[in-house]
Amino acid sequence: MTATNAMTKETLDASDIVEGRRVLNEEADALKALATSLDENFNAAINMVDSCRHNKNGRLVVTGVGKSGHVARKMVATLASTGTPALFVHPGEASHGDLGMITGNDVVLAISNSGEAPELAVILTYVKRFHIPLIAITSKPQSTLGTHADIILALPNLPEACPNGLAPTTSTTMTMALGDALAVALLKRIGLTPDQFKVFHPGGKLGQQLKLVSDLMLTPQDLAMCPPETTMGDALLVMAQKNLGSVIVADKDSKLLGIVTDGDLKRHMGPELLTKKIETIMTRGPRSIAPEVLAAEAIDVMLRRDGSMFTSLVVTDKNNVVKGLIRVQECLRAGLI
Predict the structure, then answer these.
(1) CA–CA separation, 112 vs 71, rounded Å?
(2) Is residue 205 part of a domain?
(3) What local confidence, expressed as pLDDT, does residue 210 receive?
(4) Model-wide pTM > 0.85
(5) End of a domain among 162, 192, 222?
(6) Residue ranges making up the domain that contains 322
(7) pLDDT (tens digit, 9 = 90+) per residue, 178-230?
């Protein structure tokens, strides 16, 4: 490569970075403008969808064509995974039977930046005929879509980041972000809990992160557990048999009293250790956690408390009854660490 060619390549590389930053900055500015532009129509849209879901067991039907269709599909996936029943209907397929997917209990959300996509005509006619509520996302409120809509979520009418002003870029970014805003606002309105969210995400990393302590803990029959009057000689035999590195001390009702770990053994090592009662060796009132807590919270307690590290936590119910033991090892196997 000649020096001239090298300089040309460096110049081109620098130009690419400048162009990339321009696009990102323009789209970031557009999102800020969109956030500022949200008004009572956003509240009205949330109320409409929430009412439809609660009162009629209806769904949010999202539609769009071209790039708007791709955004609509993503929007449906996000809505459905956050507790709002939603489906995508392609405008081109609507006139070939898919209109039957839209019921009188539903709300339709139609996406078109220009508001003049001819493919939407069949759906617009259908929703008017059967009095199905229509929400529009468009940058042209006075367009055909806008004039047919019951609620308009207007996008700021900003130029596309494409240097030719043609390829959907800024508009699709705003639309996708607006879909996220709708989904999260509805999630908050619904009050979706982590347990409910887990139902929609049973697999993958997210599903693993939503596992509960009860999903990963060792159950009582797997534990080394002794009453407080047990001698350390007998306790060590139980500890060795279960091979967990600790012995839980509990009363006759299985209520947690304490725990003996390798660290406790080292601190009390001596000729009389085996004859001592376990209650004189145990750490009283050890840190415990409830079975219904997210396993991720147990990890946080084990690995970050006061900068120290616990390898396990006793699992107890609200009455302090031992229900199990969660260990770092099980969390590692589940892919949580």
Answers:
(1) 10
(2) no
(3) 65
(4) no
(5) 192
(6) 213-333
(7) 999 999 999 888 776 565 555 555 555 555 566 788 988 999 888 999 999 99
CATH of the domain at 61: 3.40.50.10490
The SS3 assignment for 225 reads strand
Give the number of domains in the chain: 2
Count of other CB atoms within 10 angstroms of residue 296: 17
13 with 100, same domain?
Answer: yes
For residue 17, tell me if it sits in a domain: yes
SS3 category, 263: helix
- Return the pLDDT at 272: 87
Token pair in block for residue 247:
């012995």
Tell which residue, 79, 103, 72, has the closest CA to residue 190: 79
Q: Which residues contact 274 (CB under 8 A, 6 or more apart)?
A: 231, 232, 233, 236
Lowest mean pLDDT among 47-51, 274-278, 326-330: 326-330
Task: Quote the pLDDT of residue 190.
Answer: 75
Q: What is the mean pLDDT of the chain?
A: 87
CA distance 10 to 12: 5
Distance of alpha carbon 179 from alpha carbon 111, whole angstroms:
10
Shared domain for 64 and 9, answered yes or no, is yes
